[in-house]
From TrEMBL:
Residues 31-53 are annotated as: Disordered. This is Uncharacterized protein.
């Protein structure tokens, strides 16, 4: 059985990972927007690599 302190530690670790992913995605969007401002290219992702069902 998982102790209360271990559950708190796991929850904090998960929240930290989520914050890291959100921050990384935000940085990627900001870099893409900045790249678009400099080059004038579209910031839309390449949809040729995605599949449709």
């Amino acid at each position: 059985m998982i102790s209360n302190t271990e559950m708190i530690r796991i929850r904090r670790q998960m929240q930290r990972r989520i914050r890291d992913v959100v921050a990384e995605r935000r940085r990627a969007r900001m870099m893409e927007a900045h790249h678009t401002d400099l080059t004038g290219e579209s910031a839309e992702p390449d949809t040729s690599l995605t599949t449709t069902v």
